[in-house]
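input
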Amino acid sequence: MKAPPRPNPLWSSPAFRRLWLARTASHVGDGIALVALVLLVQGSQGSGTAVGALLLASSLPRFLGPLTGIVADRVEQRTLMVACDLGNAAIFAVIVGLQPSFGLLLVLVGASATLVTFFEPAGRSAIPSLVHVNDLLQANAWMGTSLNLQVALGTLLGGALVATVGVRGALAIDALSFVVSAALLIGLPPLRAQSNDAHGFLAFGKEGLRFVWRTRIVRTFVIVLFLGVAFAAADNIALVFLVRETLDGGPFAFGVVSAVFGVGMIAASVGLSIRRTSLAVTSLLLAAWLMSGIATIATGVAPAIAIAALAQGVGGLGNGLQNVAADTLIQRAVPHDLLGRVFGVVSGAAFAGSTLAYAAGGVLLDVTSPRSVFLIAGSGILAVTAVMWAVIRRETRSAP
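output
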């Protein structure tokens, strides 16, 4: 007799639903803040280097990923997540109240990114404690939808709010979103540390690094992620200049184009959350990177804002597939007591790639053009995808 289908984890697990709602509130607020901050810096400083510096400030603390992963595996995770949210609420309240100089703004953005870096491995490694193992793909898809709302809804609201209530009003709403998230997270059951290992802090961390290096599928994914993001993140700097200067769009047009990327991400994650797929996780990753590369090139050659938005939607679809497949791959391949540390390494690789892109992308933009940045980024993504396909094919053939 065929077993009845499992209920969707968003409906069957109140604790997971509470975590999802908390992340959604925070992610939407982050999308609002990102648009507000980029428009603030682009308008006040007027250079790609300045926008790159802003994005760089938000990425450098993410190198702490391996360290924060160790913390996530050793402390009570609910308390950690609540403390990070409240700290971020305070930081954005200070930005709203002080209207800091560009230099101080970079420091505050860096402090906020540090708290986000401590939050992420705790939040991602908590999911297997809240849902059944057979529900992981759907649960990750729902979390992907939450993250994607940052781009689809948050950026759209960000453009609209900056146009109506200004940058300070938009950032105040972001501060409020962190308070809402913290209030929801307080209602979670205690999430004890996944490991009671008595070794020292550094030895505890080295255990996670050794696992990543010795596990072929995880090692391959981490390397590919670093290289792919190093190319893909360059378009985050160039997009505002492509829309506003090359294509003559306003703040709202920038918000719309950014939001369409998020719509594509939502389409991917919602599709995977509603219907189970028989595709291998590695196949999903390959398809995701291929779509991202093609979409980035198409954005760079787009003759109008509508075409650029369509291309960004395709890119968002690929990015959404990649996010869900990546988290599921790690959760299935890594023992539960190592999840925080491995997710910390994965986050570190991703943000190492984005940091490289932000450090070089602004300069590249200033010496070339927005279209050139998109063409270089897209070509790089396709090259990385070809390498990943070759590695996966070779490893599949050599598997016993």
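quick obs: The CA atoms of residues 223 and 349 lie 7 Å apart.
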